Automatic annotation (TrEMBL):
Superkingdom classification of source: Bacteria
Enzyme nomenclature, EC number: 3.1.2.-
Enzyme class: hydrolase
Name this polypeptide is given: Hydroxyphenylacetyl-CoA thioesterase PaaI
Domain Thioesterase: 54-126
UniProt keyword Zinc present: no
The organism of origin for this protein: Aquibium pacificus
InterPro entries attached to this UniProt entry: Acyl-CoA_thioesterase_PaaI, HotDog_dom_sf, PaaD, PAAI_dom, Thioestr_dom
Annotated GO MF terms: hydrolase activity
Chaperone is among the record's keywords: no
Record key words, sorted: Hydrolase
Length: 146
């Protein structure tokens, strides 16, 4: 029996999450995943703040990058980042719950483009991220054994 696209996305995410020590260390949670999409969130804690007493941009980038990774790896193909860029719009503050929602813009050949929108608990835009992906050799799990 063939797996649905949603089942493939979930199993790919489960395989990745089992090894994703960086996202776990960040305090992120994987809230949703689907074909070409993923949503992750984290609460800004004291150790995430910088010298301006706001969330360090590197942590916001990491949250967005992780959501991007789960979205582009949702087809049971190993995919890595080729390059990405982020634009910070507003600061994340201590106690904010940041949510990164990734969506596929396009897949072509071995490449893909994904946009990630980072917002706070009120829906205020914190950052916009665009990631370019590249599929490499390998699978997250054996679909024939599923």
């Amino acid at each position: 029996m063939a797996l649905t696209a949603q089942e493939i996305a979930r199993r790919s995410a489960d395989a990745m999450w089992a090894r994703d020590d960086a996202s776990k260390w960040l305090g992120a949670s994987l809230d949703a995943v689907g074909p070409g999409t993923a949503t992750m969130s984290m609460t800004v804690e004291k150790h995430h703040t910088n010298g301006h007493d706001i969330c360090h941009g590197g942590f916001i980038f990491t949250l967005a990058d992780s959501a991007f990774a789960f979205a582009c790896n949702s087809y049971n193909q190993i995919v890595v980042a080729q390059h990405n860029v982020i634009t910070f719009v507003a600061p994340g503050r201590l106690g904010d719950r940041l949510e990164a929602t990734a969506r596929e813009v396009a897949r072509f050949g071995r490449s893909g483009l994904y946009d990630v929108r980072v917002t706070d608990q009120s829906g205020r835009l914190i950052a916009e991220f665009r990631g370019a992906s590249r599929a490499i050799e390998g699978r997250h799990f054996d679909e024939d054994a599923a």
